[in-house]
Amino acid sequence: MNQEDFIHQGEGREEDKLIAWNLFQQAYEFQMNGKLDDAVDFYHRSIDAFPTAEAYTFLGWTYSFKGQLRRAIEECRRAIQMDPDFGNPYNDIGAYLIELNQVDESIPWLERATQAKRYESPAFPHMNLGRVYERKGNWARAIESYKTAVTLNPDYTPARKAMMRLVTWMN
Description:
Blueprint: H1 3-7, H2 14-32, H3 36-49, H4 53-65, H5 69-82, H6 88-99, H7 103-114, H8 123-135, H9 139-152, H10 157-170
Helix pairs in contact: 2-3, 3-4, 4-5, 4-6, 5-6, 6-7, 6-8, 7-8, 8-9, 9-10
């Protein structure tokens, strides 16, 4: 997401949106540097200045880094309430449910992510669906999901490796 997209979301004062964007950027830097408590604080500040689906989703992602998957899911649900067209929180909920070993429950979330109108990384939910189907022993659907992920993003190495591993194993 870039600053222009962030600022053009929803109704509100440009000044509040710019403040929220800057706080979001700082939060992301903290998150990437492993300063998770600071990241949580700055995502909350961004949301207080101007709430966005992105800020809630990334706040959830930070909670997932802290091992707080239920809280991460709650933040993703808030993101969906703000913008049901944003694909990331659907995929993230699916991924968190996989980590919680609730693979069947993850499928509808991941499928919704594949249909999202706004998603910068549409290969991710297909990769995650591949992981689910592989766990369930449905090799054909797993390969199909991995193949779709690679089609959407030819440079997505984990999907390519997973697909090749299964294809090789089946032959």
